[in-house]
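Bench notes, bay 3.
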Amino acid sequence: MERSEYIKTLDSYEYLADYYDELLQDEDSLCLWLDKIKVHKVNSILELASGSGAMASLLKKEGYTIKASDISPAMQKVAKKRFEGEYLLLNMIDFDLPEQFDMIICFCDSINYLNGYREMEQMFKTVHDHLNDGGVFLFDMHHYHRLKEFKEEYIEEGFVKDVPYQWTILADETAEELSEHFVFYDKTGMIEENHNQKVFDLPKTVELLQKCGFKVTFDKDFIPDEKVLIEGVKI
């Protein structure tokens, strides 16, 4: 792809939000997550990092009382086109709401945006405070295999909504991070977004959940070599 002289680097999802569903939405995963939610007898759900609102919209159609949330105003704007419900702007690490829920969910590897175990522990404490007794915290995260999968750079190029794009993923095994770089070439020039995600150790994550007052179960092969699913029940 030809590189434009005009280059603009934006915050995460500031530009990608408009193309998120076309590039990153996974309908199969939505169904897998829904099946895991249906195992539990819950009514009220808070979704963290709701993104484009696909999961929240599905849960509302299934009859759940669902509140969506995200830290990105751009994602909130996109989600309002499909999700007819309350969509909050909040930081999933230390939010403070005047209510508790039967279940809190955080999918699509969103927890991997946390900047280390200190933020993870703070998030777990916050989630615990916002669950009813016996409430369920359900989330997924990157499988450790992803660090090996992207040891060599992954490159994807194409068109999305007639806009040329390039998407690369590269792992840093020493830092235990995945770096995703998106480039879009629109009429104004080249737009860049960088997304860095930590790949967390499963035993350490379980340990922190237990420390924060959860009984923990997990499926390390929820999506083999790709996603780990973790469930914490408030005790």
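Next record in the batch:
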Amino acid sequence: MNAGRFLTHSRIRILRYFIHSVSHLRLFIRWLILSLTAGLLIGGIGSLFALCMTEATGLRSRYPWIMFFLPVGGVVIVLLYRLFKYQNDRGTNMVIASIHSEGEIPGKMAPMIFVSTVITHLVGGSAGREGAALQIGGSVGAVIGRVFKLNDTERRVLVMCGMSAVFSAGFGTPLAAAIFAMEIGSVGVMYYAALVPCVVSSLTAWRLAVFAGVEYDSFAKAVFPELSIHGALLILLLGVLCAFLSVIFCMTLHKTNTAMKKHLKNPYIRIITAGCILIVISLLLGNQDFLGAGVPVIETALEGKVVWYAFLLKIICTAITIEAGFKGGEIVPSFFIGATFGCLFGQITGFSPELCAAVGMTSIFCGVTNCPITSLIISFELFGFQQPAFILIGVAVSYMLSGYYGLYRDQRIVYSKYETKYINKHTKS
């Protein structure tokens, strides 16, 4: 009797496992189709965005006088948002809020941020493009979710798929793009349910972008020194300084926004003033190194060469650009700030400016986004797996000591950085 019951129970368990497996397989196929669709569609848009950004930056490089149209470009952006009645734009914060089911992303966000970011880079606004990419991907992902009549939970996953796809297509780091979309919303928690969809959409978009001819920035892969106690201590100190600098960057952005809206209430006057300030700074310097994303300066820093004031001036120019109303992202500027500061630190201490630039670049990125896993992965994709211990030290220290500050006010700190404690609060501004 006991043997018979055992066999019966075993068959029941096997049957239940088979039913669950079939259910999971159906879910897998469903998300495979949805994420492939998202990867192809949103990846195509991301590829077009990347190509337009490259062309805009190339035009300004060939014709430096385009910089004098900064005020005009700013007015066009403000007018565009007013004409389409989209004046309360919360940017990437709105995308992050939608992941928490705290609002819907309007479909018009994608074309608005697409056009306005291209204009910003064409005339020379000091901004990146990845923040805009997240908004484009999140917006189109939300639209696809509504078209397919997905429920709220599934739409949130598709928003993350869209973020991964455009980030991957635009920056050429598919592994980091997949993880970033799952990590950016909530610090201390990862949305692992979105892992397969984000990976599929990210890789699909990346391959589509490569096929479309998108070219990515290639950073010099210098030979880094071997790990030593002396080197580890210096990198630990660099991580501490990068944490403080990331807080300064975030505070500067938020305080500049408050000050500009207080003293320059008219959005047209505000953005014209910002454009004129950027022109004056470039004329005084005799170059346009601090306009646009600044990738050439990042490349120079990774070769061990930098001017001492580069990181400070980039913070100022980016804050003026973004908070005045120009569109773009803060991620590549954070790379610029980290690379130039790290290189300067290396020059002062005499310890491999190239390595310090790479560590500074990823540490500042981690400090402002609160995404340590993405920071590690993106460093491997950009610099290879040379001496990952140095990168790990810088990222870990910066993550801990940057506290609860961040670029995005709607990012939620779910678990404390200092103890295993649930706190669930928004980042500081």
